[in-house]
Amino acid sequence: LRFAGTGKEIRFQDIVLLSEDGSSLVFGQPIGYELSIKSDIDLDDLSIGSSLFTITGTCIGTLFTKERFSIKANQEIELDLIIRDLNLAPGSYYAGCSIGRGSQNTNRSDLEIVVGKHAFQVLPMSHEGDSIATWHSGWGSVVLQDVQLTIVS
Asked: Is the C-alpha dihedral spanning 109, 113, 116, 121 positive or negative?
């Protein structure tokens, strides 16, 4: 779904999930996308925004890249966007991606927004082949792993 009013001067040509089968990831695997972008005009100081959603439409979180890029008229470029250490729970998800200027610290102005093209599954197994017990949806969509418990008395 491309949002109305966007994609006029710059657009995503393709968004591909970086995984073996293009539609699933194992638990703990970084979420990566290859973004193909084409512009009709010269643009600079651009960044990528992305939000992840559960299959029911609940937003899990949003990012804006600190890295900026430029593109020339009639140029097509490819970018890799990698999200590490998110630990999404097993289940179904989709993402939205945007091209624009600004971030959460400034007024964001999006020139292109695409949502839902790249749905994916997080499988209940790790790279090592370990399986995860059935994940209860009431536990949320993120497995919090970097925690520490200290006995103080």
From this structure: negative
Q: How many CB atoms lie within 10 A of CB 98?
A: 22
CA angle 57, 60, 66 (to 5 degrees): 125
| Helix (H/G/I), strand (E/B), else coil: 129 | coil
- Both structure tokens of 55: 């299959």
The residues with which 21 forms a beta bridge, in sequence order, are none
Question: Which residues are bridge partners to 83 per DSSP?
Answer: 31
Given a cut of 70, is residue 129 above it in pLDDT? no
pLDDT of residue 131: 72
Q: How far is residue 124's CA from residue 77's CA, in Å, rounded to a whole number?
A: 34
